[in-house]
Design brief:
Elements: E1 6-9, H1 21-24, H2 31-40, H3 44-51, H4 56-66, H5 71-79, H6 92-101, E2 106-110, H7 114-120, E3 132-135, H8 136-139, H9 146-156, E4 163-167, H10 170-178, E5 182-185, H11 189-198
Parallel strand pairs: 1-2, 1-4, 2-3, 4-5
Helix pairs in contact: 4-5
């Protein structure tokens, strides 16, 4: 078995916090109304359509038609999406910088809407340290679909047996392992660091 030489990261809940609540708690004062809105209007399941490659304009049009009284808030989700990401996961960016400083090739596979990524990526210089990032909304493939891992291996030009894939969702890690990669289910930066030391990337 070859030594592990490459790190492949997920982004949401591994490198960055994400939750629509971070935005809408600024816009909806009543806690019960906020919970209802997130459970019924701008839901995570609705958001995941963007991750799958659905154009945001279509999603907005349909949702506004369904909830016309909430048009302003629905449009705010598109216009102020970056506010759903309040900051990095504690300790993760330090690990990325250390790996980069040691010359470890860095890649990412992320479930992320194409338009949301276009607005988020330029504001985050940490991604400059990555050789390539595969975005589900652009490719219209989502983890844990086996096809997105096959595409990543081909595009990145990596040996899966020499790659460690890091994701917070166990089903995504298991799919990466099925594609021949090593996997780590992310819990926090401390346990990730221990795993990276174990495989001698740090």
């Amino acid at each position: 078995m070859p030594p592990i030489t490459t790190a492949i990261f997920d982004i949401g809940h591994v490198l960055f916090q994400w939750d629509p609540r971070f935005l809408f708690e600024k816009l909806i004062d009543d806690p019960e109304e906020l919970d209802w809105f997130l459970d019924n209007v701008v839901t995570k399941d609705w958001h995941f359509q963007a991750d799958a490659g659905r154009p945001l304009a279509q999603m907005l049009k349909e949702r506004i038609a369904e909830f016309p009284d909430h048009e302003k808030l629905i449009r705010a989700y598109a216009e102020r999406w970056n506010e759903t990401v309040p900051g990095p996961i504690s300790g993760s960016h330090e690990i990325v910088r250390e790996l980069s400083g040691r010359g470890v090739p860095l890649y990412a596979i992320t479930n992320f809407g194409h338009e949301f990524w276009a607005g988020f990526r330029p504001e985050q210089p940490i991604f400059d340290l990555f050789a390539d990032i595969l975005v589900s909304g652009t490719e219209k493939l989502m983890k844990p679909d086996a096809a997105i891992y096959a595409l990543a291996i081909e595009r990145f030009g990596v040996d899966p047996a020499a790659s460690l894939f890091i994701d917070d969702r166990i089903e995504n890690v298991r799919a990466a392992e099925a594609a021949g990669m090593h996997g780590h289910v992310f819990q926090d930066a401390e346990t990730l660091r221990a795993e990276l030391e174990r495989v001698e990337l740090l």
